[in-house]
Amino acid sequence: MIALQALVNGLVSGTLLAVPAIGFTAMFAVLRFPNFSVSGVATLGAFAGYLAYGSGLHMAGSLAVAFAVAGAAGLLFDKVAHLPLVRQGALPAAIASIATGLVLENVVRLSFGNEPRGYDRPIARDIRLGEIRVSPQQLETMALALALMLAVFAVLAFTRIGKAMRASADNPELAALKGIRPERVAMMASFVGMGLVGVGGMLFGLDSSIDPLTGTRILLSIFAAAVLGGLGSAPGAVLGAFLIGMAEELSVLVVGSQYRAAVGFVAILLVLTLRPRGLLGERAF
Amino acid sequence: MSRIRIGRRAALAGGVAAFAGPAVLRAQSAPSGADPIRLATLTPLTGAGGSYGPVMAKVAAAVTEEVNKAGGVLGRRIVLVSEDDQTSPEAGVRAARKLIDVDKVIAIMGTWASSVTTAVAPLCWESKTFLCTVSGADSITLLPHQGFLIRTQPNSKLQVTRVGEFILSLGAKKVFTMIPQTPFTQSTFDILNQVLPKGGATHQSLIYDDKKTTYRTEVDQALRASPDVILANGYTPDTVVLLKDLYRAGFKGKILGFAYSINQKLLDQVGQPEVVEGVYTFAPSPAEGSGAYERVKAAVGSANPDPYTCQVYDHINMILMSMALAKDASGVAIKDNIRKVTQGGGKSVDNAVDGLKAIAAGEKVDYAGASGPCDFDDKGDILDCKFRYEQVKAGKFTLVKIA
Predict the structure, then answer these.
(1) ipTM of this predicted complex?
(2) CB contact under 8 A, A208 and B181
(3) Is residue A185 within 8 Å of A30, Cβ to Cβ?
(4) Same domain, B259 and B326
């Protein structure tokens, strides 16, 4: 029974993890480098949402603020630091993104200090469904995450810009020949991708508390989810996020929670050894 | 464009002045007759401990002044040198070298961070300089310090033993400890596994990852043991998450944690009083209400001096009296005599001026300090000190007892 409860818990954290994982994988699909500054951007989004929520904005509005601020920061850093290096290869850009992530983390630290802060959200007792308990807040957070994911998939499937992003990710040269402007698609990917990461940071913070290391804590899980599902595949990222979320919770029962970080690393190791393309392969959609 | 030109002569004159300056200042504070006795504080004036170090140095200076006014020790003036360890082992070692080699101090007081104390201690015992520290890590008194080190901060063994005893006093039968991976995790388990069964309680535990954003599964695991007391032994950020998840899971038993983690900041973040209602906290406490504590309050001008300041007050008083008893001002003399003035009965004194008079009159003294009774075992650890227990009631910390 406790295993079933752990699975439910994993499903909840997997849903939250899916949002930034989609952002991470979408950026990889279009920009062709792993952007590790997601750690700093997730933190930034969490704090932007915190300020918005604290100023009296309701939840959806605060999430929109987190999205916009994180997206803008992502756009800026890609423009200034990452994209000029991509021409030299993915590795220099990836290393630069680690640096910008650190910069963002410390900007937050200098502005807000190291003290953890909590969203002023009422904490309610769990609802019991037989032996399984779920918290009403988590259901709400989960619903927000699911709605956001549906919106992202709808945009990718039905809108011009979504189709352009997918085309660009699939074959940049061919897309350019068809008149899709690669810079515009790249900017869109930076903004939307990092926006999702910022929202993810806030969703994680809603349940716990936020501090300058909020994003760093979820970085490995985001990366593992994206690699597991297949870097560049949005549905893959969702699948990967659920699997990582559940594996992390189940591992608590088997090896203890101090080995949680190992779950992410083992997942990456297995995928790279057995199926380097990831579970769903590398497809933008 | 005009430039400031510094000629060779001016530079030379400036250099001489710069070197001579401290000597002139030193000459002013030195006594006309006998050589002064040199002591030092090495506290964190900057860095992570920067909020504590300045007050620690201040209280030592206040005691020095008082004793000098009363005629010094062995007819000699006390000169106190203050250095900054920057809460960094490298800076601490540089400062300690200067204190030992240049200033020729015979004792160093107040090293704060365990890493600094660990780095500075070998310099001290090799040069037979006495070291008094406020660092808590168990490993410090296990160093081969040959007796040249004492500490006034309770080590984790003493702290956890007292936590265990307090848990038993709450009537606990099944105790569950939830703790992240830290240098004291294993020793905490070991000590509680000894203390709790003696009082008829069982003990189970779980190590969690302090970087997780939810502890729902960990809480489920803990609650399977149906504990009546949970010891939440983490730091503030993870304890916030843990307490929320315990509340959500409907845990009705008692919760206990260290005051360095369950503090006002934690209450602010949780934001909802019923989540933390009834939670007990625990911390080493200065000997509030004692004569020495009142003297520290007056010396630093604070109604609520921190434990480290109280401990440095005790350091300098104990050192001054042990030199007087030995009739010798050296690190070895302090090492051989410090326990003779701090324990074993005799006239109870809470300051060096009274203690020095009693020693001059041939009386045996037993120092009772601002941080506690100041009795030491052979390794240099204190045998006992007061602890402060509080409970959250209606969103406020209320005192349960100091014992």
Answers:
(1) 0.78
(2) no
(3) yes
(4) no
